[in-house]
Amino acid sequence: MGVSRGGFSSRFGFIMAAAGSAVGLGNIWGFPTQTASNGGAAFVLVYLVLAFCLAYPAFMAELLIGRYGQANAVSSMQKIARNTGQKRFGFVVGFGGIICAALILSFYSIIAGWMMSYAIEPLARLAGFTGEADWLINHSLTRNIIFTALFMGLTIFIIRRGVEEGIEKWSKRLMPMLIGLLILLIIYVFTLDGSREGFNAYLNPDISRVFEPDLLISALGQAFFSLSLGTSVMIIYGSYIAKKENLVTLGAQVTLIDVSIAFLAGLLIIPAMYVAQAQGVAIFAEDGSLISGSNLVFTVLPALFSGMGKVGLFVAFGFFVLMSIAALTSSISMLEGPVSFVVERHDTPREKATTLIGLAILVLSILIVINLDWMLDFVATLSTQYGQPIIAMLCCVFAGWIWHRSDVLSEIKQGNIDVEHSLFWKVWPWYTKFICPTAIGLVFWHSL
Ligand code: TRP
């Protein structure tokens, strides 16, 4: 099996793929709105600290488990386990992550489908197809099913090709596009009336709020969601990294990209909201907080774009293409979790496994689309508020308590020979053992 397994062909390829998984709707949509409703720059500050001090160590645990195991999440966890009880525990954690990834994909693909239909709408309008354009932005059952299926089709198309030709190649194409588009949009919004006020709201910290428990909890939850922790994805991506690479720096680079893109997205979204306000669009909800969630993306921003006339069509196109790309590089990683498991454990050809699993998840997505009013929220809460934190915590427990310290060290040492004397090795084992599980447990407990 070892020989025929795929892997990332280059460091850059891995960074783009892992950053692609991490950077998603959570960064471009979740982070800015959480920032806006949690004291602006105070939230950014706390987020930065927590991302590096807590999410990064947990992220490292998952990458290390994967690279050591050189296999899907379940096999990797079981390779570390030394007795039957631990092997069972490893199965539960690994398989739980895989199910969690599949559940996230089932609702993520619906939202991503909306992003795609909103991206095509300005093109249809430019071409004079007004009726079709209206259909694209009206939330009908047919449109939802068609675009969810279309997005899932794209995800399946990439994952069928495997690690190097699929995930790596497409991440290397899409991620630079995403960063370029984001910067262009920020520059454009910069030039509009009202953006200055938005920058102030975003960048002036209300320091008094830094230690508010709710703010800390939201920031930590957001950091874990953003690094795709607790879903088996980073274990499997870790297993595709060559042994000669330095995981400590690679992990830090991915975290840095994830955090920076979230920060950049805030520079786009919050000023854009204040520009919308300058044009007469309501951006505050009744309770005085900034509008967030789907109303922001599908009401406030489109209102802003349509107020810009013809230019607005191009801006809208750019923005929703950006959202679609961010979603696609995340969704491929979600599908890779279950696919790698079936391919390696059940000896199934990759193409067949990808199509079957992709279609099975699509069936669940369609079920959610039909029962949108309650099921979307239910599946999202189940997977991201319960599944992800619990499994991420168990991964830390696994790495901290079950995995032998000397084995961990010899794994990290590959590609990083001096690590034993580094700050990382002084701090990280202790962190994953005590601090990470406790902090995640606290967040989880609070979110209940
Ligand atoms: N990190 C992604 C984002 O910010 C979302 C995400 C959560 C995810 N869990 C995941 C992506 C698991 C891939 C796999 O939007």
From TrEMBL:
Keyword match Transmembrane: yes
Query: A Pfam family this protein belongs to?
Result: SNF
Instruction: Enumerate the CDD domains for this protein.
Output: SLC6sbd_Tyt1-Like
Signal peptide positions (record): none
Q: Where in the cell is it found?
A: Membrane
For this protein, the record's InterPro entries field holds: Na/ntran_symport, SNS_sf, YocR/YhdH-like
> Its topology with respect to the membrane?
Multi-pass membrane protein
Any coiled-coil ranges, and where?
none
* Cellular component annotations (GO), alphabetically ordered: membrane
User: What are the UniProt keywords, alphabetically?
Assistant: Membrane, Transmembrane, Transmembrane helix, Transport
Keyword set includes Transmembrane helix:
yes
Question: Which residue ranges run through the membrane?
Answer: 12-32, 44-68, 89-116, 145-163, 175-195, 215-242, 254-276, 312-335, 355-374, 386-403, 423-445
Record's NCBIfam families? Na_transp
Q: PANTHER family, from UniProt?
A: TRANSPORTER
Protein name (record): Sodium:neurotransmitter symporter
